[in-house]
Amino acid sequence: MRVYDAVIVGAGVTGCAIARELSRWEGGFLVAERALDVCEGTSKANSAIIHAGFDAEPGTLKARMNVQGNRMMDQISQELDVPFKRIGALVVCLDPAELPHLQELYDRGLANGVQGLSLLSGEEARALEPNLADAVCGALLAETSGVVCPFELTLGLAESAAKNGVEFRFDTEITGIQRVPEGWLLQTAAGEILTRAVVNAAGVHAGVIRGMVSQEKLEITPRKGEYCLLDKTAGGHVSRTIFQLPGKMGKGVLVSPTVHGNLLVGPTAADVEDLEDAATTAEGLAEVAEKSGWGVKNVPLRQVITSFMGLRAHEAGDDFILQETEEGFFEAAGIESPGLSSAPAIGEYVANMVADKLGLKKKDSFDPQRRGGLRLAEKTHAQRAAIIRDNPLYGNIICRCEEISEGEILDAIHSTLGAKTLDGVKRRTRAGMGRCQSGFCSPRVMEILARELSLDLRDIRKNGKGSQIVWEQTRGEDHEA
Prior knowledge:
By secondary structure, this protein is of the alpha+beta class. The longest helix has 20 residues, at 61-80. It is globular and about 65 Å long. The two termini are 40 Å apart. Helix content is 30%, strand content 23%.
């Protein structure tokens, strides 16, 4: 049996960032993911914000990783060819009595080393963002805050890692871990995996993985956050991310443009017990609608095109856990907000710990560059015409809302760690992310997936197991999709 140098449990943004950084070193590395694709957990459903770093308590790993990760984003987005925009953010205060709390955030940001911070009056803030609520009496401006596509960032990290030699195994849930002379033996339904070191980057399941190797409990609480995504016609309602200063009415929700031009509002925050809870609620979405109007007026909620929910991995100590918990067992756990912002720094930090422990050597052949798929909608008319002349499949538009062609979908299916499901295609190409939310294009995407992967239509899934779209009805039985 092959002995890996390190196995990373979890292919979210944290696990993939660690994998990419480990691929800078000589060794054999594997990412084991229980789902069928990267970015299937917390990383797929969050605010998509690259935070400036003023919120975390000075001296914590959250503060350190956030500020460092933010500073790394320009280079990493260029290397990975993923969209990232530094649009800035405003934290708005709605009660004059709470203005001292705004000053506290400013001072905390300075202590954390955040640049580009300034305090504004309500009038100054509204001059920047005319749709701020009349009640806004002050604001903290953070110029280094930005937005990114979490799907594309995670995929970019994963593809870069794979390009540099990291192996990925999907549908590979870890069911047991035991100490062996070589290091650790991991049990899965698909067979055993032998490794010198394990990195626990399992998100909300990190406590379960810890429990397999240690009697010291890791308390991870799934914290549910619900969002509404608005059409691109609403994307210009604000030009920066608008946060609300926590106050007597609660924390409120953010209102933010997305990197692709939509408008995002949310999230709620409610602790739940179910690690698999993925359902939005009428109450949660009503809360999003109400609280979004506290800091921003006239939010065009009639233009909501979809809603979604994400689970954050909240750790009882309210800080990131980045450590060697047992001999050769490392953890990147409790990675809630600002986890997306911190991912590049966490990847570097944990990979260096592992490499130092194992005595690995840096390799000369690491290639930091990764190119994303062709984005036809971003090309000029002349460029499109030339591309279509070379390959007419790029002229066959499958998703009309986002103008995604058959050629782009084929690229996604046959790329490194290629798409195998409807959601896999959606996250790589945006086919199905537009106004009709795949109502028009999903049947055609299914046909393309079936043809290219040599599958029956009944085998095509939206995402994980049991999510088939087409079911065969047997006489006397009634199946629901």
